[in-house]
Amino acid sequence: xxxxxxxxxxxxxxxxxxxxxxxxxxxxxxxxxxxxxxxxxxxxxxxxxxxxxxxxxxxxxxxxxxxxxxxxxxxxxxxxxxxxxxxxxxxxxxxxxxxxxxxxxxxxxxxxxxxxxxxxxxxxxxxxxxxxxxxxxxxxxxxxxxxxxxxxxxxxxxxxxxxxxxxxxxxxxxxxxxxxxxxxxxxxxxxxxxxxxxxxxxxxxxxxxxxxxxxxxxxxxxxxxxxxxxxxxxxxxxxxxxxxxxxxxxxxxxxxxxxxxxxxxx
Length: 266
Ligand code: SF4
Fold this sequence. Notes:
By secondary structure, the protein is α/β, with parallel strands linked by helices. It has helices spanning 22-31, 35-42, 49-61, 99-102, 110-121, 159-178, 191-203, 246-251, 256-264, and strands at residues 80-81, 87-91, 142-146, 185-189, 220-224, 235-241. It has a six-stranded mixed β-sheet, with helices on both faces. The longest helix has 20 residues, at 159-178. It is globular.
């Protein structure tokens, strides 16, 4: 879907600069002054050739039969939620027929069904079901971002793709932490998101406990903002939750109660 062509919630326009390499992404992300600018710039990013090819191939010729008549977004998934949020939820990456179809984080797939239902139960989401961009969903106090913003084949981004997309995550974290409301807490959904957040805040010069904290459901660590240390004030809480993947939720590894409890700790 070309930027500026009327897709609900499209943060970009036809004039939004396009990153065509990881170094472009680094430069453009560093220049973004607001999370809205990060959304716009990242939503047209073409820095990872393998992912660009995959997301666009799925959007054009690889649509799931049930969605064959629908237009697909086919672009990176920008963050979604409250631009003034003090709390972030970090996922892994868009699903090929979920965010890559709908253009909104965790929207239109089973993982999203779980996450938005929990966000509604815990008071963050205005609706229990997230069907499509433009459905009226509003998040309050929380924003959802991805470790990798393009749908990867087999849900497996490469280290280079994680590193390239880390530039957008870095800027999202830095801008939120520097905002008037500040960043209070981050919920990492799964081990890849956990590692992505730790890598991002290390790059930003935040204080990360040593040895590196291992991911676990319910694990919580304090990340110290630069110069202030993980003492409570000036620190950001990082919490871990199992990912809301169909595998985890269908096997009972992650229950609705566990997810609600994790969100309520944010
Ligand atoms: S994964 Fe991230 S860095 Fe790579 S093309 Fe998509 S938005 Fe750009």
